[in-house]
Amino acid sequence: MGTKISDIQRNTEAGSDMIFNRAAKLPMKKYYPQIVTEKQQVKQIGNYDTMGDLGPAGKHTPGDTIVFDKIQQLDRTTITSETVVKGVEADMEALEYDLYDTVNKTFGTPLIKRLLTMKEKAVADVYNDSFASTGADGVYQMSATHPLQRSALYNDNLATGGLTPENLVLAKNKFNFIYDQAGEPFDTEPTHLLNHPNKLYVALQILQSQLMAFQLSNTMNTVNDVMPVKIVTNRYLDFNTTTEVSPWFLLDRTMEDAGVILQTKKGLRLKTWWVNENEVYRGTAIEIYGVGMVSMGYGIVGSTGA
After folding, report:
1. For the domain that residue 205 is a member of, what is the CATH number?
2. Which of 5, 117, 176, 280 shows the greatest Cβ crowding within 10 Å of its Cβ?
3. What predicted TM-score, i.e. pTM, was given to this entire model?
4. For residues 251 and 262, what is the distance between their CA atoms, to the nearest angstrom?
């Protein structure tokens, strides 16, 4: 007996699920996990509150009234999860003559890669746009003037210039002047240097040379002796091929909310069905997530690279 259309339908449905699940488990190069904090959120809109601080302590004069502070909500950042989808289809003729190869090339790795690329771009764009995106505290996410609730000081997480030993030291030192909302020193220091892969060799020269990089001297290289950092690259960061300008960032990955928050609702899943009118087999890969930066002025220092 020959193959029936019903056999093709049944085999396709079983085969596409198997191939999709297999492709989803394959090791693929992923950049975003190193630069996000992933949070599960069942609601479409997640609210992330920044809390204020108690005011500074002071000496008490007998008889004076004691000041009682309350810790209150300061800023609120909202992240909206969105549905990301990619659809594919295969006609009956393609399936009948080359069932498994057609399903494999249509419903397998290519479909997974499209959604992965979408997520990589979404995460990297939060970093790329942080120099011109206004945060919950009313200033750009990378800014020299992040306001504090109980202090006239500002938090400055905006570095300048390209990736050089001098600029990297200046950016590291900015962590020494990050304050809590009362203007008291905040315990933070960088753990990772994030840049574009085209700048990897420059970063390695700066951090791993025995002598100071790019200098005609015998000066010992101490750039990574103080507040040592690990290098993380991301090919989805902006890179100008003409000027070779690219943003770079220092991250304190010990902070839970440093950098980008990846808010996830449901993981990657496949939906397939037959369109009986024209015998076309269709599938959609679906994922629901949102991205954003919620910790204003904390855990990250960035430069446009210019």
Report:
1. 3.90.1690
2. 280
3. 0.83
4. 16
Task: Work out whether the CA dihedral 291, 292, 295, 298 comes out positive or negative.
Answer: positive
Length of the chain: 306
**pLDDT of 48:** 86
Per-residue pLDDT at 56:
66
Residue 5's pLDDT is what?
43
**What is the widest separation between alpha-carbon atoms in the chain?**
102
For residue 294, give Cα distances in angstroms to 77, 96, 233, 256.
Answer: 6, 51, 22, 11
Q: Is 115 exposed, middle or buried (0-12, 13-18, 19+ CB in 10 A)?
A: middle
b/e map 207-228, b = 16+ CB within 10 Å: bebeebbeeeeeeebebbeebe
Question: 185: which strand partners?
Answer: 179
Task: Give per-10-residue mean pLDDT for the chain (306 aa).
Answer: 44 62 79 94 86 66 72 79 87 62 71 90 98 95 94 96 96 96 93 97 88 65 84 97 97 92 87 75 87 94 97
Residue 212 belongs to a domain: yes
Domain count within the chain: 1
